[in-house]
Amino acid sequence: MERFFKLKENNTNVRQEVVAGITTFMTMAYILIVNPTILSAAGMDSGAVFTATALSSIVATLIMGIYAKLPFAQAPGMGLNAFFAYTVVLQMGYSFEFALTAVLLEGLIFILLTLFNVREAIVDSIPVNIKKAISIGIGLFIALLGLEAAGVVIGDGATILALGDVRNNTILLSLIGILITGILVARKVKGALFLGMIITTIIGIPMGVIELPNSIVSIPPSISSTFMKFEWHNIFSFDMVIVLFTLLFMDMFDTIGTLVGVATKANMLDENGRVKNIKKALFADAIGTTVGACLGTSTVSTFVESASGVAEGGRTGLTAVSTAGMFCLALFFAPLFGMVTPAVTASALVIVGLFMIENIKDINLEDYTEAIPAFLTIIMMPFAYSIADGIAFGVLSYIGIKAFSGKIKEITIPTWIIGVVFILKFILIH
Fold first, then answer.
1. Which regions span the lipid bilayer (predicted)?
2. Each residue's pLDDT tens digit, 109-119
3. pTM of structure
């Protein structure tokens, strides 16, 4: 392992990497429950989707760990699964087979784009200060995700956001978890995020928030109802073009944003500000999406919760391999992992949010042509509830402000091109 993953060179060890991998899994284990729930609305068998979700996560995350040797985990992405079920199937009226076909085509296109370095060029086209801002924006976004899922932050109709009822045991457990995890971090306890979630889970049992399962072991459901279920007669329709463009855009910039943001936090950028092994990482995403479509699930992407493992010290592919191993166990121990609720993971995600905003001190706030685009990138991720839209606002404002402030020469041709793509996105999708 030392030779393959270069643990000492990355200032880590097997224990640290495994703990980081388990931590990443625990913060994203909800996808095993949520993804089948969402896709069942599209008429898919939830049991089959559960198995497909776990298997596609295992394949994609193993590729990320063994091939790209990066500490990022992959699974069917939130937002992408909602678009699959609620927009393509329920709103547009197509079958889930049509949607799976779109996901398959998306994965194949991504393989080609990655092969010819198009996605890598897109990553390189993002200005340096916006790359730093992406990490900060993800920090705020991931904290919001944790608080919202646990009910600490809610939309109450009268306001956009409001505080939930702190007398509720679920919310109270989340706040206790944040406090416990914060104390562990402050005392520099190794594996603080992981231990925080374990302690929070134990406390939640007598509080009535966490239920002990009736059984621990379960047999993975069959994927026969979703395996290779494609529909080819509509692939040349205009609707397929729109669906495909939307999936491509959402996945591309969510994945790019996560890779850049988390890698920045982990100091995994090279001297030119590029993510190490970015092409291999993007291949993992593309192959994961393609395999996922064949198994019967929506688009696979790099999970922002990977930041929790990085915060625990994960620096190599062994972290990802450990996460994949946990997904393997989850196939057979689903009831046990069902105890890891949003009330438990909120503590880790909020503290990770703090870790992610460290890079704000590295952003040039004196040059407003740099500071304003960076600021818009940061705030629009949580406000628009989208990593991709945060990047879009950052890049487009960067182009506009630089162009009309006498600094048009600082805008590279790739940045102009990506700006046009963002404008097309807003015209076609919004």
1. 20-42, 48-68, 75-92, 98-118, 138-163, 169-186, 193-212, 324-357, 372-399, 411-429
2. 999 999 998 88
3. 0.82
